[in-house]
Amino acid sequence: MFGRLMPREGNFFELFNQHAERIVEGSRELAVMITDFTEIEKHAQYIDAAERAADKVTHETITLLHKTFITPFDRDQIHQLITAMDDILDLMQDVAESIVLYDIRRITPESKQLAEICQMCCERVRAAVSLLQNVKDADAILKTCHEIDR
């Protein structure tokens, strides 16, 4: 009976997926920013907007974590996942702000390649996070993680 009174499994997976979408948005903007190297400030603003939206999702997730009695998996793992995802966008935002702040005029081919790799990795993060809803499907999660390692 006590279990019925306590909140159970919030919509953590939905929040993870929302955050992953913001990560992909930010990575796409960063890749376009570095590849085209035009309208730099506009792209930096888009990345900043994606980061702020992701921060709201992070805050909502942590609030839900504190309110939920029974979580879909370990509380610490939920906290680590959402903060690690938030760190990804924070770092992309730092790169964009540094480019604007230091008035970078030229981008190396290696920087362009790194931006493309960043975008691919962020898309893999989104794919891996979407698999979390099916925790029983551990093989699919492991397969995606191994693809990320490549």
What does this protein structure show overall?
The chain is mainly α. The chain contains six helices and no strands. The longest helix is centred in the middle third of the chain and has 28 residues. The chain starts with a helix and ends with a helix. The N terminus is likely disordered.
Features:
150 residues, mainly alpha, 6 helices, 0% strand, elongated, disordered N terminus
Radius of gyration: 18 Å
Mind summarizing the main beta sheet?
none
**Residue-averaged pLDDT, rounded?**
88
Oligomeric state of the chains?
Answer: single chain
Query: Shape from CA axes?
Result: elongated
The structure class reads: mainly alpha
**Helical run tally:** 6
Order of helices and strands: HHHHHH
Give the total of beta strands. 0
| Helix content estimate | over 70%
In the predicted model, the low-confidence regions spanning at least 5 consecutive residues are: 1-6
Approximately how much beta-strand content do the residues carry? under 5%
How far apart, in Å, are the first and last alpha carbons? Answer: 49 Å
The gist of it:
With 150 residues, this protein is mainly alpha-helical. Helices cover 79% and strands 0% of the residues.
What's the arrangement of secondary structure elements?
Blueprint: H1 2-5, H2 12-36, H3 40-67, H4 75-101, H5 109-130, H6 138-149
Helix pairs in contact: 2-3, 2-4, 2-5, 3-4, 5-6
